[in-house]
Amino acid sequence: MNTLQNNLHTIQNQIQTASQNYQRRNVHLLAVSKRHPATAIRELYDLGQHHFGESYLQEALIKIAELEDLACHWHFIGPIQSNKTQQIAQHFAWVHSVDRLKIAQRLNQQRPTALPPLNVCLQVNISQEASKSGLSPTELPELANAVRKLPNIRLRGLMAIPAPQKEFAQQRAEFRKLAQIQQQLIHQGHPLDTLSMGMSNDLEAAIAEGATLVRIGTALFGQRQT
Q1: For 75-115, what is each residue's pLDDT tens digit?
Q2: What CATH number does residue 136 fall under?
Q3: Hey, is 95 helix, strand or coil?
Q4: Residue 157 domain flag
């Protein structure tokens, strides 16, 4: 068993164990492949991992073209500039980082009609960090209502990157905020089924609080290439 295969099995076991310990279902791995080569993605695909997350559009487009023979599900997870929305709408199945109505409207307008609706998560700045993207929890209901009306977009849930916490209880507390906000939106009538939260260092805490997609890069691929 090589390193990549061993890492994948380790993470899958961690997800399974946490899911059992906290009675969670339908937790899926998103392999964050940014700054990693297409050869590694192909190897993981052959091992059964088909969902991959990218943050840098030009890098992603090269890999998408190189791997067009594979049925990969591509997730865009980085900040979105207006001039990048057309290519994101054309080449990705998921976008995790929508935090402005303008971006959502452009993705909706530029989504090819031959493709199914674009799956979208709204990014929430759950720790209120000035250095991070995302909207505040108070801004969320208005944006969710507007995005849900766009015909070429399917609002699936929320995404967050909380401030790093060393203590497990603190990690859970941050993720709990996002889970509670999602429940409020569900009670308001939004049929949300996705919580994109948790990375290599806080996977267990995220699953404990209801994550359905955990975004794992370093623990899976190793250190990023420059």
Answers
A1: 999 999 999 999 999 999 999 999 999 999 999 999 999 99
A2: 3.20.20.10
A3: strand
A4: yes
226 within domain boundaries: no
Within a domain: 56? yes
Q: Supply the DSSP symbol for 178.
A: H
Dist. CA 59–CA 139, nearest whole Å:
32
Domain assignment present for 78: yes
> What would the pLDDT profile of 177-186 be if each residue is shown by its tens digit?
999 999 999 9
What is the token pair recorded at 28? 């899926």
The Cβ of residue 164 has, within 10 Å, a number of other Cβ atoms equal to 12
For the beta carbon of residue 10, count every other beta carbon within 10 angstroms: 12
How many CB atoms within 10 Å of residue 127?
15
Its domain, for residue 91, covers 3-221
Give the whole-angstrom CA distance, residue 157 versus residue 121: 5
Q: Which of 84, 109, 110, 113 is nearest to 97 (CA)?
A: 84
Number of structural domains found in the chain: 1
Cβ of 106: how many Cβ atoms within 10 Å? 19
- Bridge partners of 195, per DSSP, are 158
Name which of 190, 189, 192, 211 is nearest 202 in CA terms.
Answer: 211
pTM of the model: 0.96
Name every residue whose Cβ is closer than 8 Å to that of residue 57 and which is 6 or more positions away in sequence.
76, 78, 84, 87, 88
